[in-house]
Amino acid sequence: MNHTLIKIKRLLLKGTYEFRLSADIQLANDGLIRDDAIESILNADYMRMKNSTSKDKLKPKEKVCIVESFTYDGILMYTKGVIRELRDKESFYIIISAKRATFGGE
Question: Does some domain include residue 26?
Fold first, then answer.
């Protein structure tokens, strides 16, 4: 398992994460809740990363973590987020996107 995915799972278990409004809206539109997104990430065995294209990124080469995995109810979910560091070096995970996934893409 990827060391970044392990770090994300540990951040989630510690409660050091937040959901962006966009993720909350996507979840609501799909009839899902935050716990579904957390569950799917904790169940994941792999993830992929890509360069962020967001104007809100904090560093030029910030990476976005993309996880597609199932909830305990068998719902395939797509989540996208970034790991950020605070001034005191405490990391947290920001969930930018969380929705039902379709096979073969977003």
Answer: yes
